Amino acid sequence: MVDDDIFARIHGLIEEEHRLRDGEATDLDRLRQVEEQLDQCWDLLRQRRAKREFDRPASEAEVRSVDTVEHYRG
Fold first, then answer.
1. Domain spans of the chain?
2. 10 Å Cβ neighbour count for 5?
3. What is the reported pLDDT for 74?
4. 3-state secondary structure at position 64
5. pLDDT tens digits, residue range 11-30?
6. Is the CB of residue 9 less than 8 Å from the CB of residue 1?
7. Residue ranges in the chain modelled with pLDDT below 70
8. Distance of CA 46 to the CA centre of its chain
9. Contact, 70 vs 36, CB < 8 A?
10. Measured between alpha carbons, how far is 47 from 35 in angstroms, rounded to an integer?
């Protein structure tokens, strides 16, 4: 996966998030899932950028669990 693929995924998730928030019958479980997936995507991009900054292959970055991403303290 390359950064452009991750950005495309983020764009799709943001569109879905907007549709869910604009709908009258909001699916709160799906909205939570979308938000978690967005956090995972942003985390993956940050990892990839950090790897490149320190001359490591960006491909070493991995999608981390929702629990890890949601409870990360920076």
1. 3-70
2. 10
3. 59
4. coil
5. 999 999 999 998 876 788 99
6. no
7. 25, 74
8. 10
9. yes
10. 18
* Side chain identity at residue 24, one-letter code: E
Which pLDDT belongs to residue 61? 97
Phi, psi of 71 (to 5 degrees): -115, 15
Cα–Cα distance, 22 to 17 (Å, whole number): 9
Residue 17: CA atoms inside 13 Å, Cβ hemisphere, count? 14
Rounded CA-CA distance 74/59 in Å is: 22
Residues 35-68 as b or e (16 or more Cβ within 10 Å = b): ebbbbbbebbbebbeeeeeeeeebeebeeeeeee
Cα angle: 7, vertex 8, 10; to 5 degrees: 60
